[in-house]
Specification:
Layout: H1 3-31, H2 39-57, H3 62-71, H4 78-93, H5 98-105, H6 110-121, H7 125-145, H8 158-167, H9 173-190, H10 199-217
Helix pairs in contact: 1-2, 1-4, 2-3, 2-4, 2-5, 2-7, 3-4, 6-7, 6-10, 7-8, 7-9, 7-10, 8-9, 9-10
């Protein structure tokens, strides 16, 4: 499954989840029982939707901007957000890949770290952790490519790359441990294990990755 197929699959999953939540909203409106809405599921859906729109289309895309605007709106409804996801899926199937190509081909990582910082500032610290973790993983891949002694497999795991770079003295043991901790936090954020970390953990993670990027990529 290539990058485009993964994004299409994830958008479909978010749309399915959104339809279920939207049905809950309609039932709550009908009965006037808004406590029946699972706010945790709604929050997870928002975070995951923001993440896939950011990664698939970029922060300057109309899909991402409109979704952020709706999320910040006091009258936000899942149905409106889901309509934006439908439009994004339709455009992706139609060949709109500019955001993904930018992500895969970018040589400069600062824009993506700024996106992580913006998400953090707006209160979406789990999404910020996921974005920062993706930057870190891509950076390790590029560092491995710069080492002629390291032969990358087709789909190298972050932990594997981290171990190889430490073995070849690209960085020291302390940096290796920090990367391991940051990767663990990214995985927890990506899998919705939000009780396992807090905003301060993500703030430290983003700062650590920024320092790493400045040292190795200027």
């Amino acid at each position: 499954m290539d990058a485009e197929e993964r994004i299409i699959k994830r958008l479909g999953e978010m749309i399915d989840m959104g339809e279920e939540l939207s049905a809950e909203e309609r039932r709550a409106d009908h009965h006037g029982n808004y406590e029946s809405i699972n706010e945790g599921n709604v929050a997870q859906w928002k975070m995951s939707s923001l993440n896939i729109l950011l990664r698939g289309f970029g922060e300057n895309s109309i899909h991402y901007k409109e979704f952020v605007k709706e999320v910040d709106n006091s009258t936000f409804s899942v149905e409106i957000g889901n309509n934006i996801l439908f439009a994004a899926l339709d455009d992706m199937r139609g060949g709109y890949l500019a955001g993904m190509k930018e992500l895969l081909e970018a040589e400069i990582f600062s824009d993506f770290m700024e996106q992580a910082e913006e998400l953090f500032t707006k209160g979406y610290h789990p999404a910020a952790a996921v974005v920062a973790g993706c930057v870190l993983e891509d950076a390790l891949r590029k560092l491995c490519e710069q080492q002629s002694e390291i032969e990358l497999p087709d789909k190298p795991k972050l932990s594997w790359m981290n171990d190889r770079l430490r073995e070849h003295s690209v960085y020291n043991l302390l940096t290796h441990k920090r990367i391991t901790a940051n990767a663990d936090l990214r995985n927890k954020a990506a899998h919705g294990e939000w009780s396992e970390f807090d905003k301060d953990d993500v703030k430290e993670m983003v700062s650590s990755i920024n320092t790493f990027m400045q040292k190795h990529f200027g």
